[in-house]
Amino acid sequence: MSCYESIFRDALFAGQVGLVTGGGSGIGRCIAHEMARLGAHVVLVGRTVEKLERVAAEIAEDGGSASWWACDIRDEAGVKAMVAEIVAAHGRVDMLVNNAGGQYPSPLAHLSKKGWEAVVATNLTGGFLMAREVFEQSMQTFSRREHRAQGRPGPAIVNIIADMWRGMPGMAHSGAARAGMQNLTMTAAVEWARFGIRVNAVAPGWIASAGMETYDEPMKTTITHLHKSVPLKRLGTESEVSAAVCFLLSPAAAFMTGQTLSVDGGAPLYPNQFPIPAHSNSLAFNGFHRATTPAFLSAHLQSPEDADQT
Ligand SMILES: CCCCCCC/C=C/C(=O)SCCNC(=O)CCNC(=O)[C@H](O)C(C)(C)COP(=O)(O)OP(=O)(O)OC[C@H]1O[C@@H](n2cnc3c(N)ncnc32)[C@H](O)[C@@H]1OP(=O)(O)O
Ligand SMILES: NC(=O)C1=CN([C@@H]2O[C@H](COP(=O)(O)OP(=O)(O)OC[C@H]3O[C@@H](n4cnc5c(N)ncnc54)[C@H](OP(=O)(O)O)[C@@H]3O)[C@@H](O)[C@H]2O)C=CC1
């Protein structure tokens, strides 16, 4: 009996083969556990062998089925070879979760070209390479007619992006890459729909994942205050992201493609951290314009440049 308690029904993914990039830690590890709990054979992909081995062993101890493949998703030849080996070993890929990713905080003006390229390659190019190879090699293995004859759709793909709807100040490289991934999700969804392939994305907000541990102390201190800016007043959990991913992979989402599900506690809806008064009529925001602004608030409508000139 697995120790992972999924919200979904037993054997939902029985007999399916799923790839999870970044499956050696954090959100990817959690997704891999849930997919295995639901009956899939899970292939964990990442760069660090020890992490992959550990998670594969955890899944096996839980009664699930997992294997792993060490690969940098930015390495085109490596990705091609890996997908070929996995298709050869398992006959197909039914599910791909493009979860591997990461970035480091930096002001935009201080980003080096090398750092920009490292993050864009990790969060955009790598996901593209994985999706393209899974598509190409699945199509080579099973023609569309064979897929239909077996009553089986093509692989379902879920791309993990991030809450970048208002830009990503402090992480510009990642915001640009994730926005690219969201756009790629829509294009792939349309181009590959005729093959029965669905492509969707999940955009996590602030998640209390193991990945947060990779940041330095100042960043960790910032993270401890982030819940205040989330309407649900807490960080999300790895399993809340995993549930959204498993929903999109499942037949429950059979008529969904090209979509992005946000798992963010409402954060992008209320970014300014203004404390909501206990009684919502205690401050009127209508007509928030210079001409009608109470005198005590006028100073707050001035930019520093305006103030210098007065
Ligand atoms: C309202 C909600 C908003 C949602 C916000 C979303 C919050 C997201 C949270 C998370 O994603 S959680 C954690 C996910 N995990 C990570 O981020 C992992 C940690 N990050 C990394 O491993 C790196 O950032 C990386 C660039 C993604 C790794 O790529 P690579 O292995 O190729 O990098 P390196 O070889 O280490 O470096 C290449 C190049 O990049 C620059 N650089 C890398 N790290 C830093 C840094 N900490 N500070 C400054 N510059 C960095 C640098 O130019 C490196 O080149 P060299 O200087 O080493 O020659
Ligand atoms: N936690 C959060 O609040 C949020 C996270 N996200 C995103 O969710 C995803 C999972 O993050 P999280 O679990 O928190 O963080 P982790 O750092 O734990 O997970 C990232 C995983 O990706 C793997 N990885 C990184 N680069 C590569 C690469 N080039 N090739 C193969 N694997 C790679 C890492 O393993 P290894 O280094 O061994 O290769 C690691 O296992 C990431 O894309 C992250 O940016 C998005 C929004 C918010």
Automatic annotation (TrEMBL):
SMART domains registered for this protein in UniProt: PKS_KR
The entry's keywords: Fatty acid biosynthesis, Fatty acid metabolism, Lipid biosynthesis, Lipid metabolism, NADP, Oxidoreductase, Peroxisome, Phosphoprotein
One of the GO BP terms on file: fatty acid biosynthetic process
Gene Ontology terms, MF aspect: trans-2-enoyl-CoA reductase (NADPH) activity
Pfam families noted in UniProt: adh_short_C2 (PF13561)
InterPro entries in the cross-refs: KR_dom, NAD(P)-bd_dom_sf, Peroxisomal_t2-enoyl-CoA_red, SDR_fam
Record field: catalytic activity: (2E)-tetradecenoyl-CoA + NADPH + H(+) = tetradecanoyl-CoA + NADP(+); (2E)-dodecenoyl-CoA + NADPH + H(+) = dodecanoyl-CoA + NADP(+); (2E)-octenoyl-CoA + NADPH + H(+) = octanoyl-CoA + NADP(+); a (2E)-enoyl-CoA + NADPH + H(+) = a 2,3-saturated acyl-CoA + NADP(+)
E.C. number: 1.3.1.38
Keyword Phosphoprotein: yes
CDD domains the record matches: TER_DECR_SDR_a
Superkingdom field: Bacteria
Subcellular compartments: Peroxisome
Stretches assigned to the Ketoreductase domain: 16-209
Pathway: Lipid metabolism
Function, as annotated: Participates in chain elongation of fatty acids. Catalyzes the reduction of trans-2-enoyl-CoAs of varying chain lengths from 6:1 to 16:1, having maximum activity with 10:1 CoA. Has no 2,4-dienoyl-CoA reductase activity.
Subunit relationships: Interacts with PEX5, probably required to target it into peroxisomes.
Protein's name in the database: Peroxisomal trans-2-enoyl-CoA reductase
